Amino acid sequence: MPLYVTLAVCALALVCLGAAIAAIAIGKHVFTKTTTHSTVAMGQPVRDGNFMFTADKMKCGIHQIGTPDDYQTPTGQFCIVSMKITNVGKEPAIYADSIQKAFNPNGNRYTADTPAGYYANSDPLVFLNEINPGNHITVQIVYDIPNGASIDKLELHENPYTKGAIVRMPH
C-alpha cells in the first residue's frame, strides 16, 4: 500500500477518534441531570420550567375547609399556601397541585390534598388547566399534615420531570 494511503487512513482514524471523544464529552454535559434547586424565601419569586412561583402566605392549624353544609376535614391539620403562578415560558403549561411537595424540618414529605384544594379555591378550573405564556393564576395549595407539625419548605414543579424549586417557609 502506498505511503500516502496509509497516512490518509491514519489521519481519518485520528479525526474519527477525536470526534468520538468530543461527542462523549458533549453528551455527558448535555445529559447530566442537575440536582441543585433554586432556593428562595417565602414572598420571593422562583422559577421552575415555564412557571414562576411566588408563595405569598401560609396558614396552618385549619380544621375545616368549605361551607357548613359542604366541607372537608383533615386527618391532622390543614396548611394552606397562597401562591401566584405565572407562565414565563413560550408555550402553554398545565398546573397540577399533586406535584407540589411540602417538607417538615425533619425532611418528611407531604403531598397536596387535591380534594381539599377544590374547597379552598373559588375556581376549580385552576387545577389541570393550561396557563398560556404571560398569564398567571392564584391558587391555594392545601396540605393535610399531622397536628403539631410544621412546613419548613416547599418543592415546586412545573411538571413531574423538572428539577423543582425550593421555597423556605417561615416558622
Largest sheet: number of strands, sense, barrel closure: 5 strands, mixed
Average pLDDT number: 85
The tally of helices reads 2
Note the beta-strand portion: 35-45%
Describe the global form. Answer: globular
Distance between the termini: 80 Å
What's the arrangement of strands in the largest beta sheet?
1-13-12-8-9
What is the annotated CATH architecture of the largest domain? Sandwich
Counting DSSP E segments of at least 2 residues, the number of strands comes to 13
CATH topology of the largest domain: Immunoglobulin-like
Radius of gyration: 24 Å
CATH class label of the largest domain? Mainly Beta
Order of helices and strands: HEEEEEEEEEHEEEE
Task: Give descriptors for this structure.
globular; Immunoglobulin-like; single chain; 2 domains; alpha+beta; five-stranded mixed beta sheet; 36% strand; 171 residues
Describe what you observe in this structure:
It is a single chain. The protein is of the alpha+beta class and 171 residues long. It has 2 domains: 1-32; 38-168, Sandwich (Immunoglobulin-like). Helix content is 21%, strand content 36%. It contains 2 helices and 13 strands, in the order H-E-E-E-E-E-E-E-E-E-H-E-E-E-E. Strands 1-13-12-8-9 form a 5-stranded mixed beta sheet, with no helix packed on it. Strands 2-3-6-11 form a 4-stranded antiparallel beta sheet. Strands 4-5 form a two-stranded antiparallel ribbon. It is globular, with a radius of gyration of 24 Å. The N and C termini lie far apart (80 Å). Residues 4-23 and 25-34 have low confidence and may be disordered.
